[in-house]
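dumping this here before i forget
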Amino acid sequence: MRITRVLSSVLLVLGPVAGLALGPAAAPAAADSTPSASPSGGDSAPTEAGTSFRTATEIEQGQKATANGSAGDYLYWSFPADTGQRPTVKATVKLPGTHATQTWQVDVYDGLRRRQACQYGAQTRTAAAGASSVELACVLRTVRAWSEPWADDPLPGTYYVRLTVLGLAAADLGLPVGAELRVDSKDVGGSAAVDGSLAKPLVPGIAVRSEAEKDDSSASAVLSSIEPDDGWASGWWSDRWVWTAVGAVLAALAGIGGYTLTRGSGRPRQVPPGA
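structure:
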């Protein structure tokens, strides 16, 4: 009975703390199982691709972008990726009816134009002669809020996708091809959280805009107009704080329960104090 009373008192005291801790956890838990961006309408989806980093076509996550080109062209798109996201890039190349064997590849670069390695996925695939299409995929590492200058970790900002053919017969050069691209992300959550954050996301023109704000000038270079739907994350909050608080509550309960069990029931009533 004493153990029950003690634990009940502790729960009454710590119950509001646990409620506050578990309340915010519902949102990250729900986000872990769904893509971070909702699909956009087909009317606003881009229907062309750029030919370089500077002319890359901007797309939102969840959008299905299409483009027509010629075999041998470089096709570029760009999209925003924020802290805690694990982007997945999927591309489909539609080939003409008659062609020789072709090898296609999709590459992803971060805001510093560093090529990012794929965790898994068919980044390079070869289409047999006469194949109607070839599908490519690249799952990036989780975007981190901060990283050492010497590291090659993905950081929040603009990411570039380049689609090109590597092995191409001379007779196939210039043949018409079609491309489809889609980027989705999974929110990994606090398991990938780190201490620290970038002052600004790695997007084109951010340094110019920041300098213009300091000078109170209205003239600023807007080289990138895309960002996550809910804005760029500040980097200080993650659901790791929630589970830290929950762990502290459970540790306190375990300590009180262990003390209650080991201290015994006290001196029996029939035993005098001096005995």
